[in-house]
Design brief:
Radius of gyration: 23 Å
Distance between the termini: 25 Å
Largest sheet: none
Number of helices: 16
Structural class: mainly alpha
Helix content: over 70%
Length: 364
């Protein structure tokens, strides 16, 4: 099978496009299958029994390819923190410090992203760059957050054009959401304040629709589009669930009222069903903190101690995650049988999990 890193590098360098990469992957899979059927081990590398019996993860996210990723990320964190501190001591200007940090992140990305193709450091450097750009432009334009959002979005777009880091698309969309909210607050502050929850919901639905466009263009999840969709789902879920929390009165420091907690859990359940249908655990996990907040509120009304509430909430969330992990495939088959055929064809196919396989790489 062709190494996916080679294809991603080829797409990033403009040698081939996403559709061609997807077709090459499909052809390679067909050749591998044909070779296995013929018993032709000389042309197609054989897979171990464990590897052959394990289904491919449809939500394989390129986060860490080895400990080197973690090692470099630690180094980045250890450099960025002191750089901000000493930069502020030197310049006493947060805009200047942000410019230096952003430029440093770009230079590091030239090596660790473009040359080394390291996943986790690339994500961290993008977050550092986007944050630095936002601080720099906010400081530059003063009281014009909408203009700062536009300039930050342009900077992130240039970063993506240069480095093709999938999370950069989500970062750019996040600046667009900030721009929409800022413009609405400037044009109609009272109306926006009274209807902020619906504005956030509309933004969340828009981000979700964009994520699904990337997802449905690559149902087998073989190209960079699936990584872009992953991060967009991570952004969409909190925007949608936060719609409920924006209706909570300010005087509720101990948690949500029972009605509000039930509304949050109902939306979380709806997001869970959608997550199963579209086969995106990231969409569900992004709303997990809100579900924990709701459970905490309900347990608080039961008169439990704060320690018991905390650990019981963790226990409930953990049990929920494990139950979904065990029943995900079966539940998805049931739900997919209810989905219209045309829509089902554009979603990832249901996959059968074979029993009896050990962990990949395990053996005597």
């Amino acid at each position: 099978m062709i190494d996916q890193r080679v294809l991603h590098k080829a797409v990033a360098d403009g040698v081939i496009d996403d559709k061609q990469a997807e077709r090459i992957t499909t052809i390679a899979a067909e050749i591998e299958a044909d070779g296995a059927d013929r018993g032709d081990a000389t042309e197609v590398p054989a897979r171990t029994p464990a590897e052959a019996s394990l289904p491919r993860d449809p939500e394989s996210v390129r986060l860490v390819r080895g400990f080197a990723d973690i090692f470099v990320t630690i180094g980045i964190a250890l450099v960025v923190g002191p750089a901000i501190y000493f930069g502020y001591l030197q310049f006493a200007d947060k805009g200047m410090v942000a410019a230096v940090v952003g430029a440093g992140a770009w230079l590091l990305a030239e090596y660790f992203t473009r040359i080394r193709l390291m996943a986790l450091p690339s994500i961290v450097l993008l977050v550092v760059f986007a944050g630095a750009a936002a601080v720099f432009f906010l400081d530059l334009v003063g009281g014009l957050p909408a203009l700062a959002a536009i300039l930050t979005g342009i900077a992130v777009a240039l970063y993506y054009r240069r480095f093709r880091v999938p999370i950069a698309v989500a970062a750019g969309v996040a600046t667009l959401v900030a721009l929409v909210v800022s413009v609405a607050a400037m044009v109609a502050p009272e109306l926006t304040g009274a209807n902020i929850r619906w504005l956030l919901l509309a933004c969340g639905l828009g981000v979700f629709a964009l994520a699904m466009r990337f997802d449905m263009s690559d149902p087998e999840r073989l190209t960079r589009r699936t990584d872009i969709a992953f991060w967009l789902h991570v952004l969409a879920a909190p925007l949608m669930v936060h719609t409920v929390l924006t209706g909570v009165p300010d005087g509720a420091p101990d948690g949500l009222a029972i009605d509000d907690a039930i509304r949050v859990l109902a939306m979380f359940a709806a997001i869970g069903l959608v997550s199963v249908v579209i086969d995106r655990r990231s969409f569900l996990v992004a709303g997990l903190a809100y579900a924990g907040f709701a459970f905490r509120s309900l347990l608080g009304d039961a008169g439990m101690s704060s320690s018991s509430i905390f650990f019981t909430t963790l226990l409930i969330l953990g049990a929920l995650i494990l139950a979904l992990s065990i029943g995900w495939t079966m539940l998805r088959r049931i739900l997919m049988s209810l989905v219209p055929q045309k829509l089902a064809e554009r979603l990832p196919p249901t996959r059968i999990v074979h029993a009896g396989a050990g962990p990949a790489g395990a053996g005597s």
